[in-house]
Amino acid sequence: MGIRPTFFGLEIARTGLVVSQKGLDVTAHNISNVNTPGYTRQRLIQAAYAPYDAITQFRPVDEALVGTGAHALILDQVRSEFLDQQYRNALSPTEYWNAKTQGLQYIEPLFDDSGEGSLYASLQGFLTALNTETTEANDREQRELIQERGKALTDNFNLIYSRLLALQEDQNLAVDTVTRRINTIANNIAELNKTIQSYEVAGQPANDLRDQRNSLLDELSGLADITYDIGADNQLSIQIGGKDLVKHLTVTELKCVETKNPLTGKMDILTPVWTDNDAPLELQFGELKAHLDLQGGANDADDDSSIAYFAKQLDTLARAIAQEVNRVHSGGYTHPAADPNGESKNGVHFFDGAVAVDDDGNGEQDTDVDGNLVWDYSAVNAGNFKLSDEVAGNVYMIASSNEKIVMDESDPNFNANLMTHVGNQENMREIAKLFDLQNITYNGISIGSFEGFLNGITLDVATVLNHSKNTQSTYTTQSADISSQREAISGVSLDEEMTNLIKYQHAYNGAARVITAMDEAINTIINSMGIVGRG
Amino acid sequence: MRVTNSMLVSSFMGNLSSNTARLMELQNQLSSGKKSASISDDPVSLIYSQQARQRLQRLEMYQKNIQTTGEWLTQTESALSDLNEVIKSAMEACVTAANDIENAGDRQNTAEYIAQLRDHFLNTLNSTYGTKFVFGGYDTTGYTNANGEKANPFTVNAAGDLLFNGEEVTPAPGTTTNLGNIRDDVLTFDLGLGVEMEATMNGVDVAVYNGDENIYGLLSDLFDELSGDSPDAETISGFISKFQDAQEHILGLTAELGGRQNRLEMLENRYSMDEINYTQMKSDAEDADIAEVIMNLKMAEAVYNAALAAGANIIQPTLMDFLR
Question: What CA–CA distance (Å, rounded) separates A235 from A213?
Fold first, then answer.
């Protein structure tokens, strides 16, 4: 038998004490962090020391080998990289649809057509006023009603347009904020990469720093659809659209540049680009993409869920209304009371914004095949849609009659005793009938009917938001599900920690008892051995 | 599966908040009476509700037009029946006068009577609906004469000829006249479904019969004959057949008006039925079934209470409660 050092037993028990103490500490750390977001439970991996004799070269072969105690091998984090990946993949569409739903919910009330103040109600109010004029022609009050309802209609267009622009501006702000946040996170992660590396050089994982990094990675995957990989030395690299945002210790930041607003033409739409090559960011999902989609910048203006798209639809409607009403209205004759010379005029526009077209450049306005003057309405939009100065200035400028009204002798057209057509409301009937046309086109775009087109826009908003809400709820459920699975693995269970607490406490007590036993054994050897017959 | 404390808490919180969301939705339905709080809740219903709303607005509009048209037609009809009375009275007077040609005093009285009927005829042609002349064509507020004064649509010139807006209604052949420009002017109203209806008649069509004779002129001629020095019984009897023509003319117009009123009534009935249908359609698309909502609300409340009770039981105890 090899020689056993006298205090060997004490040393074994001491390692037990130390390891159990460490176990208690880990348990305490876990319990303390039971509610810490992003915290991953830690687990002490302990291992037995090899038998003392096993490492000596000259050992008897017939001896049983006794171990030499325990030691804390590593402090492990219990997490599943696979679930992390799953969670982050689910998080970017979740956040995308969250932000999108929220943005669309601000747009929705603008198009809600059930109320008295809705655009639809003012369109119908205008039609009602036109209709009353068809049976009550010539009354001043009716003309005033038309003027007032027409103004209410254009005001409502203007109001909704300006609200849409304000919402677009809000999305701009969100794009800026999110871009800054991405930069901050990228820098923090690079910083953590560095710190983690310096800690882990010693061989022990920097668990709590890794938790911090993982939390940041979670947040980042909500902002943009990122890909990431962990390379040599546990260095985390992150890519957006295949381009490195963080590569080990280096960060390529993003910045916002101003691009053209498809609505106003101003350079006020913020678009995130890479700072090193000014290339635009390639995004599929994530909160940032939702803000960009809602905003409807240069590339997204035709996205049928963007603010720019809805505003453009309103523009088209305003142009179509202006074009059609003006076309019929200008064919009618105004009331002579509007003119200082008592002349009943035709060619007066009801809505403002028509620009005379002279494509052939002969200095005269072009006419179409039917001999009608050609006007361009592309300058009209929902924001500047308004009554013409004539109609806004004088209700008698509303052309109800389809024939010239002559009522003054000084008028060269004055004929015998004739003042005719004051009560003629034929032209107003034509204008009112526009609302029942189903085949209106503006500039090659088929509008259908005015109300039908507006209903279509409303339905678009409703459908897009409905879809967005449903998708959001699907992804939210999915990511909550994955989050719950992740929690099942990584979360702290108090019951479990209590059990561990008892486990380590008992182990500690046991080790202490071993020390007492060894103490007694040594006491026996030192104080009681070899004293036969002395006392 | 390992179940941790935060899983218990978060799943409880998740369930609780979906319960409260459901409660809020149902309470919203109950207090507003509407199925959905926003248009995105149910885009399919929105389509129906949009259609119904548009139809209802049109119905309201056209029902108003029908009412206005009806009032105009009633006014026109009563004017026509007045005119008919005038002709009937004149015809009776004519018969009496033809049989009593020798009595100069009676004849003079009859002449006076005819003159009054003639004036009444003129007044009736100028009758108004509200402030608007029924038979004035487009000149519903009257025309302005050569002196710049407002005048009734029907006037009589110095020669005793009936004028419509300053133009002779039965001009001598070959005269230059503006009558052609204005004799077809009639207020026409839209009644929906592409139906349009003349709400009254042009006065010229009323006053003129047999193509080129006017009733006012007929009365004038009779008056002239009766108040003349040598009235002729034959001639006076000859007026009777003319009055019969005139009466036939007016009765013909009355019958036409009756036809229009029938059409109007049919349209009105149809619109009332449409209104019921579209109101139903709108209600189906928008309104909540209150009984169902209350039942669902009670169920949701029960679930909510159960969830709260479960939460109180599940969250509390841990192993710590059992350790000494």
Answer: 11
Question: What is the DSSP secondary-structure string of A397-427?
Answer: GS--BSS-----TTSTT-BTTB---TT--HH
If one counts every other C-beta atom within 10 angstroms of the C-beta of residue A520, the result is 10
Contact residues for B123 (Cβ-Cβ < 8 A; gap 6+) = none
- Report pTM: 0.84
Q: What is the mean pLDDT of residues A204-215?
A: 89
- A69: which 2 tokens? 């105690």
What confidence tens digit (pLDDT) does each residue in B128-144 have? 888 788 888 787 777 76
Contact B121, B82 (CB under 8 A): no
Cα torsion angle, A379, A383, A385, A388, sign: negative
CA distance linking residue A113 with residue A117, whole number of Å: 8
Nearest CB partner across the interface for B178, out of A415, A432, A465 = A415
**Least confident range of A3-17, A167-181, A218-232:** A3-17
In which element (H, E) is residue A399 found? none
To the nearest whole Å, the CA of A321 is away from the closest chain B CA by 17
Q: Measuring CA to CA, how many Å separate B158 from each of B117, B161, B163? A: 19, 7, 11
Q: Which residues pair with A185 in a beta bridge?
A: none
Facing residues of A442 across strands?
Answer: A445
Residue A385 main-chain phi, psi, to 5 deg: -60, 125
Mean of the per-residue pLDDT values of chain A? 86
* Number of residues that this document lists for chain B: 324
Residues in A closer than 8 angstroms to B42, CB to CB, are 466
Report the C-alpha gap between B293 and B315 in whole angstroms.
32
Q: What is the ipTM, given to two decimal places?
A: 0.81
Instruction: Tell me the C-alpha distance between B50 and B58, whole Å.
Output: 12
Cβ-defined contact of B39 to A113 (cutoff 8 Å): yes
Q: Residue A423: which of B68, B141, B319 has the nearest Cβ?
A: B141
- Helices marked H in A44-139 — which ranges? 81-111, 119-135
Residues of chain B neighbouring A135 (CB-CB closer than 8 A):
64-65, 68-69, 187, 189, 199
Task: List, for chain B, all residue ranges whose pLDDT scores fall below the cut of 50.
Answer: none
Q: Which amino acid is at A475?
A: Y
Using the 8-state DSSP alphabet, how is residue A367 labeled?
Answer: B
Of A124, A127, A423, Cβ closest to residue B139: A423
pLDDT interval class at A417 (50, 70, 90): very low
Q: What pLDDT band is residue A528 in, cutting at 50, 70 and 90?
A: confident
- Per-residue pLDDT at A3 exceeds 70: no
**Cα three-residue angle A395-A401-A403, rounded to 5 degrees:** 135
The token duo for A419 is 């003042």
